[in-house]
Amino acid sequence: MSSTTALWLSIAVIGAWHGLNPAMGWPLAVANGLTERRATAVFATLLPLGGGHLAAMAVALVPFAWLLGYLSWRHVIQLAAGALVVLYGLYKLVQPRHPRALARVRPTQLAWWSFLAATAHGAGLMLVPFMLGLCAQEPPARGGLAAAHATVMGTLAQSTVGLALAVAALHTLAMLLAALLAAWTVYRYLGLRYLSKAWFNLDRVWAGSLVVAGAAGIATAL
Amino acid sequence: MEPLFPDPTFHPSPRLAMAAEPEKLAYTALLSPDRSRPDAIAVIDVDPASPTYGQELNRALMPHKGDELHHFGWNACSSALSPLSGHPFLQRRYLIVPGMRSSRIHVFDTHPDPTRPTLLKTIEPEEIVRKTGYSRPHTVHCGPEGIYISTLGGGGADGTQGPPGVFIMDCRTFEVLGRWEIDRGPQQLHYDFWWNLPRDYMVSSEWGLPPQFENGIVAEDLLGNRYGHRLHFWDLRDRRHVQTIDLGANHQMALEVRPAHDPSREYGFVGVVVDTTNLEASIWTWWRENGSFHARKTAVVPPEPADPAVLPALLKGFGAVPPLISDIDLSLDDRFLYVACWGTGQLRQYDVTDPMNPTLAGDVRIGGVAAHAAHPSGRPFAGGPQMTEISRDGRRVFFTNSLYSSWDTQFYPDGISGAQVMCKVGANGGLELDGDFYVDFGKDYGAHQVRLQGGDCSTDSFCYPSA
């Protein structure tokens, strides 16, 4: 597996991880499905949640991608970004409480809530090292499929902002699929009891994964 | 370190709460009517399998005298499981105990030994009034932004400087954060409040200002219809008043607000203490339809004629006892509404399956201004059924007998010795006093609100329906 594929795969896996984390909102889809007694309400809730998540990813990724336009700084940016993500993870480890502003969002403002929840948790930051890693990839040398791939990657690399958006899109798609899986399983099969029995406190695991992602970013840059 | 799993007493829906393990302990607020002793929280064993069943295990004393404990509540309820609130790993562990006369707030920790609550923190009245402009803290609910506490008074010595309202306290540090209201509209009086969290509204009710209750009921104010008689509806996340419903000036004192527990149901009930035109008490149903609120009187309890010779001075001229609905409580399945008639000494059970048409399903009589009905055990019961708490499974109803120290002596001049009794509820309704359950707190203490271990029908709010 080339490192490019590995990076894209990581982005999708992180998407699934975000989708499965209840703090990103799938229990809301269950609640709305049960309240309206319609399965379609589960999907209707997840779509704006996905929209908000996508926006949160873009807001975190695009500035870094844009900065990367200054090629001479590439190394510094990668290191600084990695350090930032590690620090934010450490902060979340020490101070796991959620911002009270989140509780002030109306239950109907799903996209806004999702955007704020993802941003406050540093969900977008978690992707930054991987995106920067992708931007830094040299196009692989020759070969049929590899050459075609290289062309695509080369074009993307010319537009790092485009790459950032592609990363956000793939990540959000994976996030939505995982959230749908979680919400649907609880809504249709497991029942609400599952919420109180098996809802792990993922806050520290989440903070830990921020630290790991940041450290990985630093390691690649060194 | 936060726990890894949600507190086992967090129930996503009302139905799951009903199916959970029954309560083993009850906490009851005790008050010293003459303020000669510190008020207390009594811990009662309500586990039928326990050798000390029906006995008072311990009494946690307040650090000062004269608090006048009234209502109190848990620091967290099932709504903490809401994904929006973002803190599902709180523990239902601390009792928030306001002193209604002192304006002091106590935080008791029920861990590690739930039979021995220990005082964790005392918040002095000066801090509350400085941060919020409010005094006389009363009802406690846990909600999206932390712990919400309603107050009955504003600033100043007699609590009349500025309107009373709701303030917020941090649910982990128990720090008073500030006023909840951003736009209070025409609201000037306060009593109870509750909400529908997913539908994002709050409902509040009105009693009176401190000079109208602290030294006893003011007959001129009552006959002049100057106590509260309105319901207020609020946008919960916006903290904004949206609608007032006036029940009519003769419907004096709209007290307990009980919304349906299932958040997909957009209705609730409120009890009115007395109609000054005919001494009736009434139950009103309020509901939301197309975004606006409505309310209608759906049940009345008539006064009962009595020989003026046996009546206290306040009632002699009427030759009748008003029922005085002082508390109502709704079972978790939204099926039975319990109505405490503190004047006539009756606990009524209404079937409210059709909320617009409550039908009487059961009743018991005990105490009462004129009747003085005894407990089935043969023991006397002073006062009448007052603060009512239903077990989560809906099979047991606990109640105490004191209303408010200065009002107790006006309606029951012989004094009210604190007591807690219990009714058993049939599977399909019907109500019977349990002859074996009688907790006697002695003549030095009055008994007020009851809280059950693991949550109860007047503190838990839910973010998921019972589907």
Automatic annotation (TrEMBL), chain A:
Membrane-crossing segments per the record: 6-29, 41-66, 112-132, 163-187
Keywords tagged on the record: Membrane, Transmembrane, Transmembrane helix
Protein name: Uncharacterized protein
Native source species: Ramlibacter pinisoli
UniProtKB/TrEMBL annotation, chain B:
Annotated GO MF terms: selenium binding
InterPro entries (alphabetical): Se-bd (IPR008826)
Pfam families from the UniProt entry: SBP56 (PF05694)
Superkingdom field: Bacteria
Similarity-based family: Belongs to the selenium-binding protein family.
Protein name: Selenium-binding protein
